[in-house]
Amino acid sequence: MIFEVFRQERKGQPFAHAGTVEAPDAMFADAWAREQYGRRGESTALWLVPRDAVHRITDWADEFDLKYRRVDGYSIKERLRIARERAGTTAPGDR
Amino acid sequence: MSERARRLLEIADDELILGWRDSEWTGIAPTLEEDVAFSSIAQNEIGHARALYELAAAELGSDPDALAFDRAPEEYRCAPFVELHLLDWAHTIARRYLYEEADRVRLDVLRKDDDAELAGLAAKIDREEVYHRMHAEMWAARLRDEPRFRAAVDELWPYALGMLEPALRPELARRTGLRVESTQAVERGEHTPELEELWNDMTEVRRSVPGATW
Amino acid sequence: MDARTEQFLGYVQGGGQAEATDWLPDEYRQKLVKFIEMHANSELMGVLPEREWILKAPTLQRKLALTAKVQDEVGHAQLIYRVAEDLGKPRGEMLADLISGKAKFHNVFHYPTKTWGDVGVIAWLVDAAAIISQKALLKCSYAPYARIMKKICWEESFHILHGRDVILALMTGTDEQRELVQEALDRWWGPLMQFHGNPIPRDEDPMYVWRIKSQGNEEARQQFLEGYVPQIRELGLTVPDPGLRRDDDGVWHYTEPDWDELKSVVTGHGPRSQDRLAFRARFLEQEKWVRDRLSSNGVLAA
């Protein structure tokens, strides 16, 4: 079985994919992955996941404009300038 | 030499010679993944030997390298068990399995020793041995029904028994399910010819320029 | 070249990377697998010249360090073989091709190691030459390979330090010990100069064209000379090439390496090629039963 190995370098950090180990079962995968990915104390934790258990997603429909869901879908600069003009105020950094 | 130093050298020499034997598998183990894991075990054993030599060295006015390399073969106190050259996997794993069981019996006693330094080191070694035991048990379970492995265990049992002092042997028998009564243990004291061969290799570079720093 | 392949080429030349599940042009995939396979084979065979010195290491610290170094190389072989396996070539087949001579491994691992001086020179200079090549793979257009190179390069950094430490102990030791280093250097210089391959212009090197490597052979060799000749000389060692000099533009000139020797060696005619392959084959064969026990369906290879 192929096991995908995810490692966490320090507590609090995300688990990142580090590689794979082929092993007959979880016990062997444990014995082997802990040395391959941790013998220098470089990992604080490992997750071993059988490759078959990983469900991959690599495609999304991208037909219609979805910018309203993201920061780059908004342009407030011009309207902010007009609003400040009307209010007679200046941008915070100009004071 | 004090009894304490003798004991320390016994265990240190066991760990050094077994670690040396086990390190020989680096690069040629049955799978690459096992090769990496097994090499860590060998390194740990040498690390244990070094720590034990440190304790003995303080008393003997020596240093770990001098104790590890500069004695004559007959001065080593290791058991014949660790001297055997077993360059096949069935025997190697059988030895790992039996050694870990015997070492656990030995360490259980040492951890309760009145000598705080010795007890502390035994506890430290024991914590690392947890992983060695997991590894040995994993393989013993996988090879349980393999005739080569069973034959190797039977063949090495007398040597494993001889690694421990007689009082501790029944405990080892209890843990492995093997018998003490009908077995002639291969005792510590007389070395195998393999030790001298090993010693020649192990000390070749060191002897080439005596007293040098490497 | 068809349109799709052309587009892929443009993509990787622009810095794009591909994953294991992406479409790859046949030509790219073939060259990639061959390159990766040779790398994995080299890590595996590279273990053999060094492992005999594990047993002869003259102090406990050196024994531990050398064992750890060789262990790393086995680990690298595992990482790299896995990448090639995920590209479709089973490990058992790669090992069989290695043993039969159908697949190659790098020149330096075909030579003997004769003394403790070799141990130092290999860890210091051969590993240095290797790291330069390996760093040029960090941005490989094939992402799974690029990712493992990061771990490999990180681990190799210890090897060089260990090598330098061994060399420095010898160079600050007795005359005999210093002589060990010079003698080893005299033997290893030729293979080191050949290591990065003949100076094919990088735009003619498929490995660069497809951005599998990010530098050409000569660039790598120049980097090696620039970094390491000063290190060698500052210890009072002599580089055994009277033609070696650095010009005013910072370019190193050297006696033309023996490219025939390189070709002969990598095709299995090096001084230790055959007996090392035989040694490898012996243990693969001997422990085949173990892999059979580990595998429930016969596919777990060494």
Task: Give a quick precis of the structure.
With 214 residues, chain B is mainly alpha-helical. Chain B has helices at residues 3-23, 32-60, 64-69, 80-83, 89-110, 116-142, 147-163, 169-176, 193-208. The relative contact order of chain B is 0.13.
SSE arrangement:
The complex is a heterotrimer of chains A (95), B (214) and C (302).
Chain A: E1 2-8, E2 16-22, H1 26-36, E3 45-50, H2 77-87
Antiparallel strand pairs in A: 1-2, 1-3
Chain B: H1 3-23, H2 32-60, H3 64-69, H4 80-83, H5 89-110, H6 116-142, H7 147-163, H8 169-176, H9 193-208
Helix pairs in contact in B: 1-2, 2-6, 5-6, 5-7, 5-8
Chain C: H1 3-13, H2 26-56, H3 60-86, H4 91-100, H5 116-135, H6 143-171, H7 175-195, H8 206-209, H9 217-233, E1 245-246, E2 252-253, H10 259-269, H11 273-286, H12 288-294
Antiparallel strand pairs in C: 1-2
Helix pairs in contact in C: 2-3, 3-6, 5-6, 5-7, 5-9
What does this structure look like?
The complex is a heterotrimer of chains A (95), B (214) and C (302). Chain A has a domain at 2-53: Ubiquitin-like (UB roll). Chain A contains two helices and three strands; from the N terminus they run E-E-H-E-H. Chain A has helices at residues 26-36, 77-87; strands at 2-8, 16-22, 45-50. A three-stranded antiparallel sheet of chain A has the order 2-1-3. The radius of gyration of chain A is 25 Å and the shape is elongated. By secondary structure, chain B is mainly α. Chain B has a single domain (3-208), classed as Ferritin. Helix content of chain B is 70%, strand content 0%. Chain B contains nine helices and no strands. The longest helix of chain B has 29 residues, at 32-60. Chain C has one domain: Ferritin, core subunit, four-helix bundle (Ferritin), CATH 1.20.1260. Chain C is built from twelve helices and two strands; from the N terminus they run H-H-H-H-H-H-H-H-H-E-E-H-H-H. Chain C is mostly helical and 302 residues long. Helices cover 67% and strands 1% of the residues of chain C. Chains in contact: A-B, A-C, B-C.
- In the CATH hierarchy, the third-tier topology of chain B is known as Ferritin
Give me the Rg of chain B, rounded. Answer: 17 Å
Overall residue-averaged pLDDT value of chain C? 95
**Ends distance of chain B:** 29 Å
Determine the most extensive contact between two protein chains: B-C, 43 and 47 residues
Specify the CATH class of chain B.
Mainly Alpha
Task: Kindly estimate the percentage of residues of chain C that lie in beta strands according to DSSP.
Answer: under 5%
CATH superfamily of chain C: Ferritin, core subunit, four-helix bundle
Structural class of chain B: mainly alpha
The main sheet of chain B comes to: none
